[in-house]
């Protein structure tokens, strides 16, 4: 009796967790610290087989018992939020292994500090890359780390040295105007870059917007006339955004400008010489423009001498983190808020999302995170709410029945395993919470985790 009381005092004497099992692998001692770490009291644990409580592959003390050896493991994840350094020693009496004892030291704060330092290192690295890119004034606000975007940059630098017409293609939101500005800045033209969105101007106003008009050209016209975009872009760059939306009747007139380098103002009778660098952009595929009856092939061949394709964000996930930190800083400055931390889980989830709206969508999400996160760390739940809002299926991937014939029992087990994995993932592998949601006991859940190898 005294021996038992002494052991109880000793295993609770230090701020360590202690567990002792006998040779049958039954738990015979469970310290108060162990109960706190694993949220399981003595009455629940003592007397049970340790393998009924924890997955066997997570139990180094079982290995220590069976193989009669001392085992140490650093930074073992004991629970969802607790890391420990662990040591297991077999208990030998008269040369026979009669049990094993394991001790655990809580090192969670140390691990969290290391993780925070790693996050800060990544942040500094990303910001350093961003600053290097921003120092290159020709590519202002174009943030990337991927090799594919490095190739795009090289294409721009090479094409900008020539006077060739350039067509930028890419999905909505990839930042085509930024790349047009980079082409303009890299080229040797002396004038300004003048943008015009072909899809935003009513067709009956397009000619006057592009070529300008003489005084009295039409009712309500400016008495002094007006300069058009072509004239404003003299010795500079004319950027035609969404050129695929240019009215068909204007395509013929603009084609003549490209061929002859001359045009008439609306209401004018004097032909004007012009000189500009043409950069166009479209979110349509070249193949779609070729097959379209709304876009002239001869104009397409003129504007698409050099094609610069900007890949969507989903094809360059390595750029997401750099873009994230750049816009996190920008948005925090915009709203005069302190810069908040982003944990690894958020960065990982951002990288997995396909971003159909590309960089523009990423900017909007970051802005929302900055505005609504109240703590020192950005609130991941805000991003999860956004996923629900846009209809992104963040639930279990659907099981697809293939041509392979399997028994009903095996198929049911597959469904069960997938669902258990989903619940565990959703709850950060918290066994207690997951077992409550699943409606089964913790030992049963541990047994199923072991069975399905989750």
TrEMBL record:
For this UniProt entry, the molecular function terms from Gene Ontology, in alphabetical order, are: ATP binding; sequence-specific DNA binding
Q: What is this protein called?
A: PAS domain S-box-containing protein
Whether Nucleotide-binding counts among this entry's keywords is yes
Q: Which GO biological-process labels does this protein carry?
A: regulation of DNA-templated transcription
Database matches in PANTHER family: C4-DICARBOXYLATE TRANSPORT TRANSCRIPTIONAL REGULATORY PROTEIN DCTD (PTHR32071:SF57), TRANSCRIPTIONAL REGULATORY PROTEIN (PTHR32071)
Looking up CDD domains in the UniProt record yields: AAA
| Classification via SMART domains | AAA
Report the residue ranges that make up the Sigma-54 factor interaction domain in this protein.
142-371
Q: Which NCBIfam families match?
A: sensory_box
Q: From which lineage does this chain's organism come?
A: Bacteria, Bacillati, Bacillota, Bacilli, Bacillales
Q: Does the keyword ATP-binding apply?
A: yes
Q: Which UniProt keywords apply?
A: ATP-binding, DNA-binding, Nucleotide-binding, Transcription, Transcription regulation
